[in-house]
């Protein structure tokens, strides 16, 4: 295990490894640049205002390492190109792929992108699995052409008559709140944000049924951020998870 401590005001993280202190300086003169797009609640872009769970977590981790954070609203294609060229330092939340590993370092897992079954309030524990939901005659609202994970793909043909396709998650949530469907699927943070926005907090809740769970990461440009700094970042983020500080931040977005 690597232990990290701050050198006050120096913009340097100090790693205590095998009894030796190794300094890791903040890249880009102390303030790293993260691209932003509107993917709520992870990232929120309202005009010139940028906020969201990603930037709250990243800013706290960077602050513990003596670094600052600047955000820039960017379309995703420009964001990736900026990361490849070293003009942007950070992208999140992302999946780790071989193609991206050519130009980027990845943190330790940031969050698990859990796809869960959302049901009417009071029915959180009614189903043990998606198969159980269908076997009990449940009608599921889905988004047309959306790539759902887990057991959905094994069940969708058998229970096609119980699946109601629509063009948006908002439509599914409105149908669920009105009792026109019995459940819908979605990523827990994203759908929870939609529920808050629509004012359905007393009508729709996430159930105990997890359809899939895939790790998301924070990605750093290889051209602008050294690998040892990403290691420092990951260690500090893990320390926050161990202490409960990470959950305190992310719980606000569920």
From TrEMBL:
Residues 1-23 form the signal peptide. Residues 31-254 form the Solute-binding protein family 3/N-terminal domain. Keywords: Signal. It comes from the Bacteria. It holds the Pfam family SBP_bac_3. This is Arginine-binding extracellular protein ArtP. It comes from Roseibium alexandrii.
